[in-house]
Amino acid sequence: MISIIGGKFKKKNIQVPIKQVRPTSAIKREAIFSILESYAIKKSYDLYKNKCFIDLYAGTGSLGLEAISRGAFISYF
Fold it and tell me: For 58, what's the count of Cα atoms within 13 Å in the CB-facing half-sphere?
């Protein structure tokens, strides 16, 4: 079981099949979003407003769910 680490769904738990996929660790997810948010602050723009986050090779989808929790919108292809 993993949990969302930021945004409006913070501390929500997600059950994942541990034997079939390997979820992105919380430390790596936090580092990715920290880098993105730091860059957005330097450039003075809203990182998540009208932005679509693509989670390629999503095993558990934790990275995409983290982005949705922080304000990115869902796009269906």
Answer: 13
pLDDT tens for residues 14-26? 888 878 888 888 8
Residues 25 and 46: beta-carbon distance below 8 Å: no
How many whole angstroms from its chain centre is CA 67?
3
Cα separation, 29 vs 34, whole angstroms: 8
Tokens 């809203």 — which residue? Answer: 46
**CB atoms closer than 10 angstroms to residue 55:** 17
Report the half-sphere exposure of 33 (CA within 13 A, side-chain side). 23
